[in-house]
TrEMBL record:
<feature type="domain" description="Flagellar hook-associated protein 2 N-terminal">
    <location>
        <begin position="13"/>
        <end position="109"/>
    </location>
</feature>
<dbReference type="GO" id="GO:0005576">
    <property type="term" value="C:extracellular region"/>
</dbReference>
<comment type="similarity">
    <text>Belongs to the FliD family.</text>
</comment>
<dbReference type="InterPro" id="IPR010809">
    <property type="entry name" value="FliD_C"/>
</dbReference>
<keyword id="KW-0175">Coiled coil</keyword>
<dbReference type="GO" id="GO:0071973">
    <property type="term" value="P:bacterial-type flagellum-dependent cell motility"/>
</dbReference>
<dbReference type="InterPro" id="IPR003481">
    <property type="entry name" value="FliD_N"/>
</dbReference>
<comment type="function">
    <text>Required for morphogenesis and for the elongation of the flagellar filament by facilitating polymerization of the flagellin monomers at the tip of growing filament. Forms a capping structure, which prevents flagellin subunits (transported through the central channel of the flagellum) from leaking out without polymerization at the distal end.</text>
</comment>
<dbReference type="GO" id="GO:0007155">
    <property type="term" value="P:cell adhesion"/>
</dbReference>
<dbReference type="Pfam" id="PF02465">
    <property type="entry name" value="FliD_N"/>
</dbReference>
<keyword id="KW-0282">Flagellum</keyword>
<dbReference type="GO" id="GO:0009421">
    <property type="term" value="C:bacterial-type flagellum filament cap"/>
</dbReference>
<dbReference type="Pfam" id="PF07196">
    <property type="entry name" value="Flagellin_IN"/>
</dbReference>
<dbReference type="InterPro" id="IPR040026">
    <property type="entry name" value="FliD"/>
</dbReference>
<protein>
    <recommendedName>
        <fullName>Flagellar hook-associated protein 2</fullName>
    </recommendedName>
</protein>
<keyword id="KW-0964">Secreted</keyword>
<dbReference type="InterPro" id="IPR010810">
    <property type="entry name" value="Flagellin_hook_IN_motif"/>
</dbReference>
């Protein structure tokens, strides 16, 4: 607020000019302030309510996208008959059925252990080792005077990145060199030979014995044999992953996941109901306290709720015509006495329908021509950069921006009014001071005249 203080009261009148100017400006300002505050409060109130409704529509759109997906009902459950032999997992769309599985062999990694005991302080002459890792060949330099620990470090320095590790095993009669691969499968076999070096190095490396050969896993699935370099089979049955534990037989049962299929529909039902509830909350009228909500009587909100109910009613009619009526599918609008347009899902009926007609339900809900896509089109018209709710939000934000600009202009105008009032009061005070001075002078002259004639 502008400062109209003169630093002193009126000289001629003794009036509080600053206070009077401030009160007059406040009185002039009050109607405009009240109008701007009313507009600002209303816009913010509507923005908050609209934001809640828009958020509910966004959540509904998310569930519709999930329901529209081609694999929305393809979640699988899988059970291994003998988990000590293998465990299994299945992705969406894995063919259902029972698979007879025999683990004939596990994949193993190559491991070599020395047969020549070596003292910790024994040294070896210079030389070169050749390490073959699958189809790759590495050359390892051995320095003159290397100990067994030095040879181990030289191997690790050259081959650790290839999944090969050398170590020293200690027994009662000395130390032994061990070289092993961390990668299973025949293609990852390793071998170590001496390319250059004396008899001491020849004896150390030549004495290595293959304790575990590199081999592929071998599995029979329904009589068909599959091999793999790891103890994980993932390319035999689409979406099915087998983790092999030991040799033996087991069955793996893959079936549709009724709970997951039900959840994707229940999530939609919950989100749809939340969208209608958000509109009802934003538009309800508190009759007891005679208080409206932010969007009571709002045409856009009535239109959105009406459109949702209308489209949903049509879609339920299409489901019924396709043999998926409320009694069969378990999906319907809430009935009397609480028929508010919200949906209810009878989970027992839905599970039974999924078990009996999974493809019919998939066709009815998913894809570009299913229920989810059709309702998503309606919901999407309110969202996004061109959506009705977005445009309404932009309009309200523009209104708030206009209020701020008008308040700035009001401040400037009121400052000019205050300065005008101050100038008028100062002029009046100067006139009163002059008149007071003249009055005092005349009084003195009259007094002097009276004294002369007395």
């Amino acid at each position: 607020m502008a400062d109209y203080n003169l630093g002193y009261g009126g000289i001629g009148t003794g009036l509080d000019i600053n206070g009077m100017v401030s009160q007059l400006v406040a009185a002039d300002r009050a109607p405009a302030d009240a109008s701007l505050n009313r507009i600002e409060t209303g816009a913010k109130f509507k923005l908050s309510a609209l934001g809640t409704v828009k958020s509910a529509f966004s959540a509904l759109e998310t569930t519709l996208k999930a329901l529209k997906a081609a694999d929305a009902f393809d979640t699988r459950t899988v059970r291994s008959g003998t988990e000590s032999v293998l465990t299994a997992s299945a992705g969406k769309g894995t063919p259902t059925g029972i698979y007879a599985i025999e683990v004939q062999a596990l994949a193993t990694a190559s491991k070599w252990v020395g047969t020549q005991a070596t003292a910790a302080d024994q040294t070896f002459g210079a030389g070169k080792l050749t390490l073959e890792v699958g189809s790759e060949t590495l050359t390892i330099d051995i320095a003159e005077g290397s100990t067994l620990a030095d040879i181990r470090s030289a191997i690790n320095g050259a081959a650790a990145s290839k999944g090969v590790q050398a170590s020293i095993l200690t027994s009662n009669d000395g130390q032994y060199l061990s070289v092993a691969s961390s990668k299973t499968g025949a293609a990852n076999a390793i071998s170590l030979t001496v390319a250059e070096g004396g008899s001491d190095l020849q004896g150390l490396i030549g004495g290595l014995e293959e304790r575990t050969p590199a081999a592929d896993a071998r599995v029979s699935i329904d009589g068909l044999v599959i091999t793999a370099s790891e103890n994980k089979i993932s390319n035999a049955v689409p979406g099915l992953v087998l983790d092999l534990k030991t040799e033996g037989t087991s069955t793996v049962a893959v079936s549709g996941d009724a709970a997951a299929s039900r959840k994707v529909v229940q999530d939609f039902v919950n989100a749809y109901n939340a969208a209608l509830t958000a509109i009802n909350t934003a538009t309800k009228y508190d009759a007891e306290n005679n208080t409206p909500s932010a969007l009571t009587g709002d045409a856009q909100m009535r239109g959105a709720a009406g459109q949702l109910r209308s489209v949903m009613g049509s879609l339920l009619g299409e489901l019924s015509a396709a043999g998926l009526d409320a009694n069969t599918l378990g999906l319907q609008t809430k009935g009397y006495p609480n028929s508010d347009g919200t949906l209810v899902l009878d989970t027992a009926k839905f599970d039974a329908a999924m078990a009996a007609n999974p493809e019919k339900i998939r066709s009815a809900f998913t894809g570009s021509s299913g229920l989810a896509a059709k309702l998503e089109t309606t919901v999407g018209s309110y969202l996004g950069t061109e959506g009705a709710f977005t445009q309404r939000t932009n309009s309200l934000n523009a209104q708030l921006k206009d209020v701020a600009a008008r308040r700035t202009a009001l401040d400037q105008r009121m400052e000019a009014v205050g300065n005008r009032y101050k100038a008028q009061f100062v002029a009046m005070d100067a006139m009163v001071a002059q008149m007071s001075s003249t009055s005092d002078y005349l009084a003195q002259q009259l007094a002097a005249l009276a004294a002369q004639t007395g």
